[in-house]
Amino acid sequence: MWKWIILALAAYALYRLFSNDWKKKQEKSNDKTEMERKVAAGEMVKDPECGAFVDAAGTITVRDGDVVHRFCSYDCRDAFLKRLEAGGRTLPERTKNDAA
Asked: In percent, how much of the chain has pLDDT > 70?
C-alpha cells in the first residue's frame, strides 16, 4: 500500500515539474514572438553600442544629421560618442534632453 502512495506522489511531482517547464517554454516563446513583432513594426530599435533592443520613443538619444540613435543607457550613449570621437568624427552640440 505505501509503495503505491509513494509511487503516486512521485508521479505527481514529475508531472508538476514537467508541466511548469512546458509553461515557461511557452511564455518564453510568446515573449520572443512579441519582441519580433515590435521590431518589425518599428516600435523597438537596436542600440548601436550594445545591441540591446530599446523603445523607439526612448529618451536617451543622439542626433547625427537626419539619423537619431537611441540608447538603452547613458553609459552606452557615452561609449558611442567616445567611439565616434576616437574615429575623428564629432557631432553637433548635444541638446538638454541628451545631456546626462
From this structure: 85
What are the cell numbers at 16? 508538476
Contact 77, 68 (CB under 8 A): no
Which three-class secondary structure state does DSSP give residue 65? coil
* Residue 91 CA to its chain's centroid (Å): 27
Q: Which of 18, 25, 78 is nearest to 48 (CA)?
A: 78
Res. 92 pLDDT band, cuts 50 70 90: low
How far, in Å, CA of 86 to CA of 38, rounded?
33
Residue with cell 509553461: 23
Residue 41's CB is within 10 A of a number of other CB atoms, namely 9
Q: What is the model's pTM?
A: 0.53
